Amino acid sequence: MSNVCREIITLQLGHYSNFVGTHWWNLQDASLSYDPDTSLGEIQSDVLFREGQTLGGHVTHTPRLIAMDLKGSLRTLRQEGSLYDPSEEASAVTWEGSLMMHEETPAEKNPFLEDLDRLDRGQTLAEDDLCSQPRRSAAKVSLDVNSQLARLQKAYRLEGSVRVWSDFLRLHLHPRSISVIHQFNHDGEAHRLEAFGQGEALLQGPVLEQLEDKLHFFVEECDYLQGFQVLCDLANGFAGLGSKVTEMLQDSYGGRGILTWGLAPVSHPDSTPMRELYHQLNCTLGTVSMASNSSFFCPLTLRGGLGRRPSAPPAFPHLNYDPSLWYHSSSVLALALDALTLPYRLHRDSVPMWQMADSLAVSGRKVVAAYGAVPLPMMQGSSLPDALTACTEALPWKPLSACPEPDNGRLYGQWATLKGYEGQRLTSSLAPGTRPPTPLHSLNRGEDVLEYYIRTFYPSSPLALQLVSSPSKLTAPFPRIFTPSLGAQGFLQSQPPPRGSPAPVVSSAPVMTSLQSSTSLGSWLAEMHRGASTLDICRVAPSFLSQGPEMADYREALEELRLLSRCYRDDSMVHSSSEESDDY
User: Fold this and answer.
1) What is the largest distance, in Å, between two alpha-carbon atoms of the chain?
2) What is the distance between the alpha carbons of residues 48 and 167, in angstroms, rounded to a whole number?
3) Which of 83, 428, 432, 495 is the one with CA 20 to 30 A from 229?
4) What are phi and psi of 383, to 5 degrees?
5) Is residue 335 a contact partner of residue 417, using CB atoms and an 8 Å limit?
6) C-alpha 230 chain-centroid distance
7) Which residues share a beta bridge with 51?
8) Would you say 364 and 567 are in contact if contact means Cβ atoms under 8 Å apart?
9) What's the Cα-to-Cα distance from 123 to each of 114, 128, 136, 442, 519, rounded to whole Å?
């Protein structure tokens, strides 16, 4: 396939989406290379990054990104960023009247941001804080600064200091990337963006003008725009804003791919029973609306369910993470998202967004579910058949969409990705004449090994595969959430580290993910419909509809959800069962 760069514009709508997006962009930045001998790797970074120039003539590479959040959500980050000096463009303003100065104490920066400031000022960090292998960072604005940033290996413990996503942002953003919505506050009890209708009403006036201006800027410089990936908060008012934004993208850029990921944290600070009810309603309306306006819609969450009584978050065998910490949970989702989004970001054998969506969203089934093995348990020095043979009882991945896997149900489509097996063998290396211990060990290609393994669970379902050896590089400030059972490359060690010695710093990890369209989603959507339709919303949450939608629109959305759930029925099972419910 041609190596033409098919650009993507990313939109991040809401605070948790920006948490996940920040980790995701940090991963992209850590893998970026400007060396012409190594830049043509497996992943095509220009799909996501744009080249520019500062006023001083320095070449830069910044994300093709629009990030929207509320007033007070940036803390130490300037809205226009620090990559370009706005003082060179500022015009002098004179005022002859009296002035009153108000001095505000700047927000305190954590150790990671302080080190970034030192590098920006040209200072050199201690060698003890740096690893031996340099790597270039996203903006080529001081090679010494970025080389040290990429080598930074301090044991940052930011769990107690990360309050907003910019507290761990390691790369420069373009001045047009950030959009702050001043009508609502990030902190405090007053002026919170809590309801779907509030978000819907936002996309007009200055907010709409800003978004259109930023979109036109990024779109007009693209030669082969393949589409948009939208990360949107699902449990708050940003679900309403995301519904209107995806509708606008569909109307203005028809034919382009619109892949929407609905993000929800495991828990919210200062939550109350009424707010939990709002979260449920926002998730319900956001799922219906954004699925309708997108090529496909995929919820992404470590929460055990999107209702008010979720089950426990998934337990990953080789992670020690705190699901309640946004800094932790967003890092797990970002690592999975790095693999989930690979098919349309490759140099070779890349699949356009619309084609990937068409293979999954068939016959109106535009909601898909994600699953991930983070990390995939592989023994150092072993092979892919060995790793998969150890998982014969159950697939190694866990739900990333609060949707259980099909249990004897039907799979309409699946896209599986394996990323980060660099240095490991994809096939078995048996001596001549040795009988293969399993059928997996007799296959000659990694793709055949993975396909055979998945088809033991789903024999006749459509399946697409993508294998990429390059790992996600886990540089600072990615949290240290891996167990001591893993070595530096994220593979299982044959022996644990000696007692008293520090566990190795995990710098990369193999990840396997799956995007699925299955009958399980029908049951999941039907349960979402039941949860919302049994509520007497006028009695229990009358304020939710006070700013929209109208009651008629709300009922229409619930009916759309009911019909959407029926798209996932396996008719062969429905006709043979007398217990099928009316909803599903």
Assistant:
1) 94
2) 22
3) 83
4) -125, 165
5) no
6) 9
7) 61
8) yes
9) 11, 15, 17, 55, 57
* Residue type (1 letter), 363: S
Main-chain dihedrals φ then ψ at residue 412, nearest 5 degrees = -85, -25
d(CA 325, CA 160): 10
pLDDT tens-digit profile of 387-433?
999 999 999 999 999 998 887 768 999 999 999 999 999 999 888 88
Instruction: Please enumerate in sequence order all residues whose Cβ is within 8 A of that of 205, keeping only pairs 6 or more positions apart, or say none.
Output: none
How far CA 494 is from CA of 36, 123, 378, 502, in Å, comes to 38, 41, 11, 16
Q: Is 527 exposed, middle or buried (0-12, 13-18, 19+ CB in 10 A)?
A: middle
Residue 417 DSSP code: E
Terminal CA-CA length for the chain: 42
Please state whether the predicted TM-score (pTM) of the whole model is above 0.85.
yes
Distance CA 198, CA 178 (A): 20
| Long-range contacts, 429-437 (Cβ 8 Å, 24+) | 429/383, 437/389
Instruction: Give CA–CA dist 296/360, Å, rounded.
Output: 8
Non-local (6+) Cβ contacts of 1 within 8 A are 348, 349, 350
The answer to whether residues 27 and 371 touch, using CB atoms and an 8 Å cutoff, is no
* Strand bridging mode 65-71 / 257-264: unpaired
Q: Judge residue 442's burial from the number of C-beta atoms within 10 Å of its C-beta, 0-12 exposed, 13-18 middle, 19 or more buried.
A: middle
Tokens representing residue 14 in the block: 């809401």
Contacts of 313 (CB under 8 A, 6+ apart): 266, 302, 303, 304, 323, 329
DSSP 8-class letter at 404 = P
What pLDDT, in 10s, does the model give residues 539-578?
Answer: 888 889 888 889 999 999 999 999 999 999 876 544 444 4
Helix (H, G, I), strand (E, B) or coil at 111: helix
Query: What is the torsion angle, in degrees rounded to the nearest 10, for the CA atoms of residue 266, residue 270, residue 274 and residue 279?
Result: -30
CA distance 371 to 381: 26
Measure the CA–CA gap between 568 and 363, rounded to whole angstroms: 9
